[in-house]
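Our preliminary data section would be incomplete without showing what the modeling component actually yields. Below, a chain of 256 amino acids is followed by its predicted structure, encoded as tokens that our downstream tools consume directly.
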Amino acid sequence: MRENKLRTLWSEGKGALNCWLNMDSSLAAEAMLGCDWDSFTIDMQHSLIDWRSALTMLQTLSQGDAPILMRVPWLDPAWIMRALDAGVYGVICPMVNNRADCEAFVGACRYAPTGYRSWGPVRGLSYGGPDYFHKANETIIAMAMIETREALNNLDDIMSTPGLDGIYIGPNDLSISLGYEPQFMPKDPEVADALKRILESALSHNVTPGIHCGSAEMAATMTEMGFRFTTITAASRLMVAGANDAIETARSMIGN
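Predicted structure:
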């Protein structure tokens, strides 16, 4: 089965910089493929990407060797299995709040006897390789999103779920759940403490910690803290930031 290079990086104790694709565009995916990302995530929760576009993006990104993940809209086994059947090498699942949620999520990612994933990898087989059935359970990555107060109260139960590979923090939803405004880099002490608690719990359970970042600087800071999977904002925001930098530079030079 095709190598999952995220697992390789993590086994070497290295961090990964993840590209977050939230634009309904195979052209944007192709453009990002030319950059030095360690992985790609197609966001099906907070984007306008539909299944047809997602498939085209998957096919485009498959020209490279960086693993492709998908954030599914919710904890729905049908969505999770369909994403995996389409050939993604990892699933990021929102709003995993307790042990039962996590068990349901992980189970949907694994074939029996460790899970209840149904057989039918219509594209996963051709992308992954002929030994897909025998290697999928150990190759696919299951990452649960920790983004609520309830999840904070159940960290040990979630992190100790057999088969959980990683967790992914959504700082904005976590902040909202704790009673604050959305924020990437934590401004409030309670939010900062929550990030630290989640990180420490993940590391103590040998679960790879990941986080959504609002800037390259934040990604570097989070990596130094111990996170091993960091997203530098989203493709649409990177495009706008690049455009604004170009406009500002041009206006400063022409005095307009």
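The two ends are 56 Å apart (CA to CA). The mean pLDDT is 97. Preliminary results of this kind motivate Aim 1 of the renewal.
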